[in-house]
Amino acid sequence: MSSTNPETLDLTPPTLEEIRGARRRLGDHVRTTPVWQWQEGTPASVLGEDTRVFLKLELWQYAGTFKPRGALLNMLALEPAALARGVTAVSAGNHAMAVGYAANILGTSAKVVMPRNANPARVAGSRAYGAEVVLVDDVHRAFEEVRRIEREEGRAFIHPFEGRQTVEGTATVGLELMEAQPDLEAVIVPIGGGGLGAGVAAAVKQLSPQCQVFGVEPSGADTMHRSFASGHPENLDRVRTIADSLGAPHAAPYTFSLCQRYLDGLVMVEDDHLRRAMALLFQEVKLALEPAAAAATAALLGPLADRLRGKRVGLIVCGSNIDPETFHRQLQPA
Hints:
- Helix 6 links the parallel strand 4 and strand 5 (132-136).
- 54% of the residues are buried.
- This protein has a six-stranded mixed sheet with strand order 1-2-10-7-8-9, with helices on both faces. Strands 5-4-3-6 form a four-stranded parallel sheet, sandwiched between helices.
- The chain is an alpha/beta fold.
- The chain is built from 15 helices and ten strands.
């Protein structure tokens, strides 16, 4: 996992042909998740009857999130000998589960590093897919440990959000959404490290340049906001949000460059906004979501409400791996 000089990095976005090719390579190993119209209730009352809201339900993906798309593409690109040596990853949980899933179906081993405060359901889910889980004190220590495993054990590092293969994988989410609803006027996508935002925006903008794409971050993990402000990828000293799967400790050159190129704007939401969106989606849509998966809804009903009133809007429901106890605890303040 050596550092890359941004000046020499190929920042070319994946083409539509490459994105469609990625979807073909993924085949039946990933689901084409449904797009569901939220026709009644709060969106209509808050945004008006003319507003149309469509949910891209990636929580019904294998391993519970969009993450297998990028993890699988990265592993399919490995040489047979490298794949046989196994893979490693760092994650608060969703990427770890995806790498475990991908390793399982491709017949190799995975060793994943997770912070000790990772959601227990995700730790158990990673182990259920056959991954060996290494727990460390925090996400910064996790990146150090995964470098050691890569170096000493010869395992291929599968990055949680950076790199061309990862972005081609996440772009298939945007491809499927636009194929299902080609006349969308806006799409809202959660931002953690930026891999999902970069891929979805690249696909949406090439398929429908007039469609606006907005990224949403929790205020306690505003890496992309800081990076946009400075003009280069920034680091966080600490993540302070309930949306732990959006808590990337840093931005990275390739995904940052594509977010810069394709996003029409970034907004932030507070943890209380995420809790209210979780409660709303549970009450009206019957979805039990982790906080990150409610971020797009929180943005639509909050900072983007006036801009998107009366439009056809797609929301990326990025996934949901959460245990009942944590879900209940997060909803209490809401």
